[in-house]
Amino acid sequence: MLSTAMALVSLLQSNCHIAVIEIGDRPLKMEVANTSDERSRGLMRRSALEPFDGMIFAYDSPHHVRFWMKDTQLPLDMFFFDSDGRLVSLHRNATPFDRTPIDGGNNVQYVVEVEAGKQVEILAAHNPLLELNACNSL
Asked: Is 26 exposed, middle or buried (0-12, 13-18, 19+ CB in 10 A)?
């Protein structure tokens, strides 16, 4: 678990723009949001996620998080992970343009957003772990 946590910390590096991650056994290619501006913007105004499978939000430390769907056109599944890559909570099928806060819970350091319903094997997995395989610049 320690090596997973240490690897995940590299998501906070300024040159980490694209991350190849695994949740359970499912590899995903993620755009990284590791600055305040990037996290605020998120997937707003996106009509498709291509060429990326989604976005991973990385915070400096674990804390309580809330998300919303303001200006987000796609329904999303959101996975909230702690600093060790353990799933804290899951929100399925977030409604586009909805301003209602989505509570991810406490002790969250990483949030993964993917198009709703597209990653059924992750949704079916029991206690999936988040692992980082690679972090790349653009």
From this structure: middle
Beta carbons of 90 and 108 less than 8 angstroms apart: no
| Continuous H helices in 1-138 | 2-9, 36-41, 120-124
71 by DSSP, 3-state: which?
A: coil
Going by their DSSP bridges, the two strands 130-136 and 87-94 should be labelled as: unpaired
Q: Which two tokens stand for residue 134?
A: 């690679």
pLDDT at 79 over 70: yes
Query: Residue 63 in contact with residue 89, Cβ under 8 Å?
Result: no
Length of the chain: 138
User: Kindly report the CA angle at 70 between 24 and 31, in degrees rounded to 5?
Assistant: 40
pTM as predicted: 0.92
Q: Are 78 and 103 in contact (CB under 8 A)?
A: no
Q: Decide if 113 contacts 78 (C-beta within 8 A).
A: yes
Q: Is 12 helix (H, G, I), strand (E, B) or coil?
A: helix
Residue 135: its H or E element? strand 130-136
Provide mean pLDDT across the span 92-108: 97
